Fold this sequence. Notes:
alpha+beta, SH3 type barrels, five-stranded antiparallel beta sheet, rod-shaped
Amino acid sequence: MTDNNTAKQIITAVLVTPIALFFIWCSYVMSTLDQTDEPAAPVAVAAPAAEAIPEVAPALQPDTPLRFVQPDTAIVRSGPGMDHGEVATLHVGDSVTLIEERDAWSNVKTDDGAVGWVQSAELFKWQ
Length: 127
């Protein structure tokens, strides 16, 4: 009968003890997750500012100052003439805002904020 009790003790030690330890570990983990004294304060998230949407896209309005680059590249210069230094390089399809026109040159502002002069023939107005 002693061998039978020893076998039960071995089975208990080998099978039951690891299962019991697993449940004890799970209880511990769950208790550490729930140990908050106070509920978390809600986080306020600012709503994005509503932007006014024009009824007609600016490029379609007849008096828009928006122009687009026609050639593969167009050089924005610091003044109205080929002898002025380069400020930026534009590529086909880039848009610029027209500030003024003088002779064959257009004073423009790029989308990046650079201001300079481009040959008017290199720009077109979307219609």
